[in-house]
Structure formats: C-alpha cells, structure tokens
Design brief:
Blueprint (H helix, E strand, L loop, with lengths): L3 H4 L1 E2 L4 E2 L4 H11 L3 E5 L5 E6 H8 L22 E2 L4 H11 L3 E6 L2 E7 H7 L2 H11 L4
C-alpha cells in the first residue's frame, strides 16, 4: 500500500496567521486550491483556512475579509500526517476527524497536501467508497 508522500500533491504553501482573508483568497485563486494551511511565524501549522470558511464565517457574517486575519477563523488543533504514513493511516485520520484535506509533514515542515482528488486518483473503488461513507456520514 502506498504512503502519504506518494499520493499527496506537492507544493502546498502556508499562509501566515496574520495575513488577511483577502490575501488567503488571492493565494487560493492563484494556486487553484480551496484550502491553505495557516502557520505561525516559525512555520509551525496552527490551522487551515478554507474558501468556505471565508464565505460562511466572514463574508456572510458581514465582516470585511480585507480586515480579518486568518488566525481569527482557525479553530481547534490542525490535523496532519507524516509523509511516510501508510495510506490506511491517512484514511483513518481523515475519517476520524471528518476532514477532506490533510497536510503532509516531513521533518516538521509542510511538504504537501492530500485532498479528495488525490484519494480518488490513487485508491481503489472500495477504499474510495469507504472513505466517502465515513467522511460524509452525518454525526
């Protein structure tokens, strides 16, 4: 079975926690992604910001994304996986936390991201069906 580093897409980029949501949205557009890891000044991940977060937690609440920092929407402890973790561990982590994107870390540095697309491209039909059932199940 493959490991996280074999199915992730490389080149994931953090946004600093003090950057605005407008800047995050610009980075997402430029990189054609729907989520960005949010990092401290030292590069340690402190959360993830999604395009949905920007719309639902900022714009829909009447807040100004040009004045709202990424750190204001990051909640909880960010989940991540080691680059050498088995894909079964990747799936278990995503299923347990019901998340659709998972940062991949090597030597305490962000090296990639695993998304639903990566799973669909690299796993068999049974694994994909099981993943979808568990991640999208209502609590």
């Amino acid at each position: 079975m493959p490991v996280a580093g074999q199915i992730m897409h490389r080149g994931a980029e953090c946004i600093n926690k003090t950057e605005t949501l407008t800047r995050a949205a610009e980075m997402m557009k430029r990189r054609e992604v729907g989520a960005l890891p949010v990092c401290e000044d030292d590069g340690r991940m402190c959360g993830i910001i999604t395009d949905r977060d920007i719309v639902v937690k900022c714009v829909a609440d009447g807040r100004n994304p040009a004045e709202t920092q990424c750190t204001e929407l990051c909640q909880g402890t960010p989940q991540w996986i080691d680059v050498n973790a088995d894909v079964s561990e990747v799936l278990e982590t995503m299923e347990r936390h019901q998340i659709k994107r998972l940062p991949v870390i090597e030597n305490k540095q962000l090296v990639g991201m695993i998304s639903e697309r990566d799973i669909a491209q690299h796993l068999n039909e049974h694994q994909i069906a099981e993943f979808a059932e568990r991640v999208y199940a209502t609590s």
